[in-house]
Specification:
Elements lengths: L9 H12 L6 E5 L1 H10 L4 H9 L3 H6 L14 H11 L10 E8 L4 E5 L4 H8 L9 E3 L2 E5 L8 H6 L6 E3 L13 E2 L6 E2 L2 E2 L15 E2 L2 H23 L4 E3 L14 H23 L2
Length: 286
């Protein structure tokens, strides 16, 4: 089970690479958002080497081309370039024809529930699961208006069980809210204004009476809101539907970004190697 997590989803590639090195090949893959992209490409037969190459050759220009504004205004970008890139990798492959049982989890915008896509165009299913609200326009699939699966199911262990998996290995790449450093424009009092320019808030060297008041940008607020929402939802889901093995890569102190995902892949590899004794024990008892 490959969860949502943006650029951190590159860690999924590292996890799959280590599993393959240990001759462990999943029979069922469920992916949400970026997890759907990595999992879907892997299920379609795209090699680990090609997955690593595709991620490592990501450049700012390639990312920017996927974010050109569009009309109608139901999202900043149509996602057309994302769909074209996916089709270049998997063509017109149908999910039901994959050698591995696969589901891309999206969210039904009209009813607010997770919607696992298990049939039809693989590229379109991944594109639907990647439809970050506000960034990409929603996608119509089988009469349902779908957005990013991370909105309703950032780590859908229950869905992988529903699809017949006897042993569930979940990869959680979500950001912990406390790991985000919030910054913004300081909020000074009138004594700290010089020629209309605000100085930084002073910090008490003794640590007493320290104030850290500031106004974060609207983007910072929205990002942190999403971070909190997804992480708490994931924690609740894990309590309800615990996996047999939970892999949580350590991205600190320098998390990956879309233009430099090498660290994410390496974090996934390291986390999978740490979890390998537990994985082998679980598989040995199956």
């Amino acid at each position: 089970m490959l969860g949502s997590g943006g650029a951190r989803g590159s860690a999924h590639v590292g996890v799959l690479k280590v599993l393959a090195e240990n001759d462990i090949h999943p029979d069922v893959i469920v992916g949400t958002s970026m997890g759907a992209q990595v999992g879907g490409l892997y299920a379609a037969g795209v090699s680990i080497e090609d997955l690593v190459k595709a991620w490592k050759t990501m450049t700012f220009g390639k990312v920017a081309r996927t974010l050109l504004p569009t009309v109608p205004w139901s999202g900043w970008c149509s996602g057309g370039e994302v769909l074209r890139q996916l089709r270049r990798l998997v063509g017109d492959t149908l999910i039901e024809d994959l050698p591995i049982h696969f589901a891309a989890v999206a969210t039904d915008l009209e009813i607010g529930l997770p919607w696992p896509i298990t049939r039809g165009s693989l590229a379109r299913a991944i594109r639907a699961s990647l439809s970050v609200p506000g960034l990409f326009t929603p996608v119509w699939v089988d009469g349902r208006l779908l957005i990013d699966g991370g909105v309703s199911a950032p780590l859908p262990v229950d869905i992988v069980r529903d699809l017949g998996a006897e042993i569930a290995i979940a990869v959680d790449v979500l950001v912990c809210p406390e790991a985000v450093t919030l910054t913004g424009i300081p909020v000074p009092d009138y004594h700290e204004r010089i020629l209309g320019i605000m100085k930084r808030l002073s910090v008490d060297p003794e640590g007493e009476g320290e104030e850290r008041r500031f106004y974060p940008s609207v983007f910072s607020v929205l990002f942190q809101m999403s971070t909190i929402f997804q992480k708490r939802m994931s924690e609740f889901s894990l309590r309800l539907h615990p996996p047999d093995v939970l892999i949580q890569p350590d991205f600190s102190p320098d998390p990956p970004c879309y233009s430099d995902v090498k660290r994410g892949i390496e974090a996934g590899e390291a986390a999978a190697r740490r979890a390998m004794p537990e994985i082998l024990e679980v598989l040995g008892g199956a």
